[in-house]
Specification:
With 433 residues, the protein is of the alpha+beta class. It contains 14 helices and 20 strands. It has an 8-stranded antiparallel sheet, sandwiched between helices. The protein has a 5-stranded antiparallel sheet with strand order 6-7-11-9-10. A hairpin with a 4-residue loop joins strand 6 and strand 7. Helix 4 packs across helix 13 and helix 10 packs antiparallel against helix 11. 45% of the residues are buried. The model has no long low-confidence stretch (mean pLDDT 95).
């Protein structure tokens, strides 16, 4: 038994694996999988632990991809790069910048590994470009028998469609080929706006911006909107002091203190939110794309996020607002809303439909069960799909009803991993036994 205890970033899950391996090549991953089979052990590859579910948890063999972190190939002519599974997104961004290319879209956290982010359906917000899985052009997987398979839209296409957002249940992803574009600048505009105005202008705000999102502060009628659009330049980044003040002090240090106060004195939260929302100010800047997309997140929390049909968003948010008021919840974190076009990966939460992602957060150590249960009832009333790496209670029966290709994906899993070498308790809860 390994003496290592692995924990998620949020502290929601921990694991004590019987075997811990740190392979430094695809061949070593294959050897580890065959070794696990000989011992009758299941295998899970972990990432950076940013999932709140048990997606990476195992008591059998755990693979840590820290040594699988090379940028194998950059091909500007085809607009692709091939990267190993364990490279953190922040390091990928810097490496791509050195080659004059960039990802077209990404989420706001850059500490995840490339494979972990893709496999759980990590996304940003975009009018024309979806989440990371929609930017994958090929994958290298170690299958349950220890063989190595390549898949893409033209090679093992059904495996590609099923495994891109596959939670490691179809094979161990060891490398991914991603689409990139020439490096670009983004003009970022952040502006406070009343919630009712955002919902009333939603169609125009989405159509006129390449990347639009907003944060609603519970117990208020206020939001902070963010619109990012490509710019010809010149670059005009935030002054260092303003960036430190906004992104480090206010968004992290001060926000941590506010949440600690709210956890100790919940009745104070509505007043705190009112004051915080009123203190928001607009800002404009132009910077390298990944500096705009991502931001430091040091305040720890737990999260639920659902992908809902975008047309249902106004009614869903109004119902959430009414539920928070009716049920007496005291919520210090803003509710985050982002958007994605329809995606083709079979298990992407944005599969086949114009999507709004609605994310609810609760500060670490604060009871979240009742709040999340109330919101989940709202999300599932419009056939919402849970983010695979965030807290939810959905089972295979429900998921089969909201994913048109769920059955086809499970048929692929039966073919490539019939003995469930890559199984886990969490995968059983969402994919079935």
């Amino acid at each position: 038994m390994s003496d290592v205890v692995w924990r998620t970033w949020s502290g929601t899950r921990q694991a004590r694996p019987r075997r811990l391996r740190t392979p430094n090549s695809t061949a070593e991953v294959a050897t580890a999988v065959r070794s696990a089979a000989g011992e009758g052990l299941r295998v899970r590859m972990v990432g950076s632990g940013h999932s709140f579910t048990g997606a990476a948890v195992t008591s059998d063999m755990m693979l840590a991809p820290t040594a699988l972190a090379a940028l194998r190939r950059v091909d500007p002519e085809s607009g692709t790069v091939t990267v190993e599974a364990g490279l953190p997104l922040r390091d990928l961004n810097e490496a791509l910048s050195g080659h004059g290319v960039a990802l077209a879209n990404m989420g706001d956290i850059a500490t995840q590994t490339v494979a972990g982010a893709v496999q759980t359906g990590t996304h940003g917000t975009g009018r024309d470009t979806g989440g990371l899985a929609s930017q994958v052009r090929g994958m290298e997987l170690v299958l349950a028998d220890g063989s190595v398979a390549s898949c893409s839209p033209t090679e093992n296409a059904d495996l590609f469609d099923a495994a891109r957002v596959g939670l490691g249940g179809f094979g161990v992803a060891t490398a991914l080929t991603l689409a990139v574009r020439p490096a670009f600048l983004l003009h970022a505009r952040e502006e406070p706006m009343p919630l009712d105005e955002v919902l009333g202008r939603l169609r125009q705000l989405r159509s006129s911006n390449e990347h639009f999102e907003f944060y609603w502060f519970p117990h208020t009628g206020r939001t902070l909107t963010k619109a990012n659009n490509r710019s010809e330049g010149p670059a005009a980044p935030l002054p260092p002091f303003r960036r430190w003040l906004d992104d480090e002090f206010l968004a992290n240090s001060a926000f941590e203190l506010i949440n600690r106060l709210g956890r100790r004195v919940p009745p104070a939260i509505p007043t705190i939110n009112q004051l915080s929302a009123r203190a928001l100010s607009a800002r404009d800047y132009v910077d390298t794309s990944h500096h705009v997309f991502t931001s430091p997140r040091r305040v720890r929390f737990v999260e639920m996020e659902y992908a809902i049909p975008a047309g249902e968003l106004p009614d869903v948010l109004r119902e959430i607002r009414a539920t928070v008021r009716r049920r007496g919840h005291r919520i210090s974190f803003p509710v985050e809303v982002r958007f994605a076009p329809p995606e083709d990966a079979w298990l992407s939460p944005a599969h086949g439909r114009d999507t709004a992602y609605v994310a609810a957060h609760v500060y670490r150590g604060t009871p979240h069960e009742d709040y999340f249960a109330d919101l989940e009832a709202v999300f599932t009333s419009v056939w919402g799909r849970p983010h695979w790496g965030k807290l939810h209670t959905r089972d295979p029966r429900y998921l089969e009803g909201v994913y048109p290709r769920f059955g086809a994906a499970m048929e692929v899993r039966d073919r490539v991993d019939p003995t469930r070498r890559f199984g886990s308790d969490y995968l059983t809860s969402v994919f079935g036994p």
